[in-house]
Amino acid sequence: MSLRPILIHPDPRLKKAAEAVPEPDDALRRLVEDMLETMYDAPGVGLAGPQVGVMKRLFVMDVAGKEEAPQPLALINPEILWRSDETSTYEEGCLSIPDIYEEVTRPARVAVRWMDPEGAPREAEFEGLAATCAQHEIDHLDGKLFIDYLGSVKRGLITQKMKKLKRERAKSGE
To answer: Which of 18, 29, 121, 146 has its CA 20 to 30 A from that of 161?
Structure first.
């Protein structure tokens, strides 16, 4: 396992739709392990393939609380089957937009179908933070960021902050 560099907005790869995974293989399972390690190290609760420069439809997530045992999930080719009419608002952040948090309103519950790393079909209903995380990560697979839900002025200010952060990191060799 190894840590993968996380792309920072604005990076054109973050705005592109990811391609479906035909069949999981050993390389994909290694990628899943790397992505989990990277997500935990960051730290975050979700990480999508495009965020590490892999344009494949997969993401990992773990929304277990700090006092709970880890509950990692790897979702390959996920699709939302159903969204509740009821909504919830969470202060979202993103590993590709570090240190920025904004409230985003999304459906409170979603049903998702995916394939696990062994190729088995899975389906579950998520609610609360898990629902928000799953929707956030599926958005990544479709080339959408959480700041796309914000007004254009706020989105522009955040983009400028990220450009500055990228310049500072480039100067310091990060």
So the answer is: 18
User: What Cα–Cα distance (Å) separates residue 96 from each residue in 27, 34, 67, 107?
Assistant: 24, 16, 26, 23
The encoded tokens of residue 167 equal 């310049």
Report yes or no: 108 and 84 within 8 Å, Cβ to Cβ. Answer: yes
pLDDT per residue as tens digits for the range 45-102? 999 999 999 999 999 999 998 899 999 999 999 999 999 999 999 999 999 999 999 9
Query: Based on the number of CB atoms within 10 Å of its own CB, is 7 exposed (0-12), middle (13-18) or buried (19 or more)?
Result: middle
Q: From the candidates 23, 67, 92, 137, which is the catalytic residue? A: 137
The CB-side HSE value for 84 (13 A sphere, CA atoms) comes to: 15
pTM of the shown model: 0.95
Catalytic status, residue 137? yes
